[in-house]
């Protein structure tokens, strides 16, 4: 537990009807590093006030919109002002709201996708550097202890030189609606005005891509993709595969689908090296599988002394007590808190705006590759 005072936190969005808002609040509370002070929780101000009353928040720090939030908070003395703002609005609002907050000097914790375009992400990266604020992007899966153990083992050479990377994220949630014309026309994630340029790759494929670069430390140089909208009147992809070539010549694969019937959140990654391989899956996150030629498979679990320092500080419970998505998100919040306070933290403690830029450039590259007839397309960086 930190001996420092808690960071004053605000939220844009995340009110009564928000599932992801609850996830963020629980994650922030787990490490006892933050206290929720106020925010602009809903476009309906009455609902925002109802939400504030439910959480016993000061109604005077509950604002009708982000403009009022910024104006009124900046009028307060620095020692009372909200320090970190969580953006949990629909996708198309991430960029304009994050931009406003950064320019006003607030630290930002933002849901992904960070923006609708790569150019917007690059602009935010420049603004973060200019205004010297902390920006965390909640690629939640990077917070799992065994993902961090995987990252540490690969960096230490436990599997030798990387030869192949295979990541997938399969869901089936859209299958019940996609085959009905009226239903698919009513899903906001299939509306470019609200979801952005991509549905499947933008929503979950980018998570798999992020996991590839996070765990391996490799940088993707180019992609060749094949995306599927299934129906001509459906504007956004709901399934796709992207082959990757990294800057050192190694090959990889990202597979993503939202029509993988009956799948839930089947995110998996396997990294194969010259000396062995490591495999992890999100639906059983406490197990990291280490395979070596001629050896029994080793299964690593959180909370044990054989794990790295990074995995150890990311584990909150004794061995045998499962930790899940809230704990993973909490580790990102913990790393962000250290950065806000100017304390030392391990590289990779939270995804940054750089991860957001990389993710948006990946999304645009796979879209361009498919549009160009499935050709190799560079990720310009």
TrEMBL record:
Superkingdom per UniProt: Bacteria
GO molecular function annotations of the record: nucleotide binding
Segments forming domain Gfo/Idh/MocA-like oxidoreductase N-terminal: 7-138
Sequence ranges assigned to domain GFO/IDH/MocA-like oxidoreductase in this UniProt record: 147-278
Gene3D superfamilies, per the entry: Dihydrodipicolinate Reductase, domain 2, NAD(P)-binding Rossmann-like Domain
Pfam families per the UniProt record, alphabetical: GFO_IDH_MocA, GFO_IDH_MocA_C3
InterPro entries: Gfo/Idh/MocA-like_OxRdtase_N (IPR000683), Gfo/Idh/MocA_oxidoreduct (IPR051317), GFO_IDH_MocA-like_dom (IPR055170), NAD(P)-bd_dom_sf (IPR036291)
Protein name, per record: Predicted dehydrogenase
Native source organism of the sequence: Roseivirga pacifica
């Amino acid at each position: 537990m930190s001996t420092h005072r808690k960071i004053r936190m605000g939220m844009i969005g995340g009110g009564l009807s928000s599932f992801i808002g609850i996830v963020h609040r629980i994650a922030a509370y787990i490490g006892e590093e933050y206290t929720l002070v106020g925010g602009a929780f809903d476009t309906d101000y009455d609902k925002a006030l109802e939400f504030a009353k439910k959480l016993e928040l000061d109604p005077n720090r509950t604002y009708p919109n982000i403009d009022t939030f910024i104006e009124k908070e900046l009028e307060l003395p620095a020692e009372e002002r909200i320090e970190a703002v969580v953006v949990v609005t629909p996708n198309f609002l991430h960029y304009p709201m994050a931009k406003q907050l950064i320019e006003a000097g607030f630290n930002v914790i933002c849901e992904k996708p960070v923006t609708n375009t790569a150019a917007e992400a690059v602009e935010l990266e420049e603004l973060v550097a200019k205004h010297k604020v902390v920006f965390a992007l909640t690629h939640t899966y990077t917070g799992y202890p065994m993902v961090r153990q995987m990252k540490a083992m690969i960096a230490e050479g436990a599997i030798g030189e990387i030869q192949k990377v295979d990541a997938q994220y399969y869901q089936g949630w859209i299958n019940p609606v996609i085959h009905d014309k009226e239903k698919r026309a009513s899903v906001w994630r299939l509306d470019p005005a609200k979801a952005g340029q991509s549905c499947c790759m933008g929503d979950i494929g980018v998570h798999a891509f992020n996991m590839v670069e996070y765990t391996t430390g490799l940088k993707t140089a180019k992609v060749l993709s094949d995306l599927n909208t299934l129906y001509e009147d459906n504007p956004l992809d709901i399934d796709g595969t992207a082959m990757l070539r990294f800057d050192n010549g190694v090959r990889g694969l990202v597979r993503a689908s939202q029509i993988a019937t009956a799948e839930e959140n089947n995110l998996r990654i396997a990294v194969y090296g010259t000396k062995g391989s490591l495999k992890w899956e999100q639906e059983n996150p406490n197990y990291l599988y280490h395979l070596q030629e001629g050896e029994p498979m080793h299964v690593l679990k959180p909370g044990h002394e054989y794990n790295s320092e990074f995995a150890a500080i990311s584990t909150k419970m004794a061995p045998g007590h499962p930790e899940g998505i809230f704990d993973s998100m909490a580790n990102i919040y913990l790393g962000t808190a250290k950065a806000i306070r100017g304390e030392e933290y391990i590289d990779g403690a939270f995804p940054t705006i750089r991860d957001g830029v990389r993710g948006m450039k990946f999304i645009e590259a796979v879209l361009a590759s498919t549009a160009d007839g499935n050709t190799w397309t560079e990720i310009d960086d």
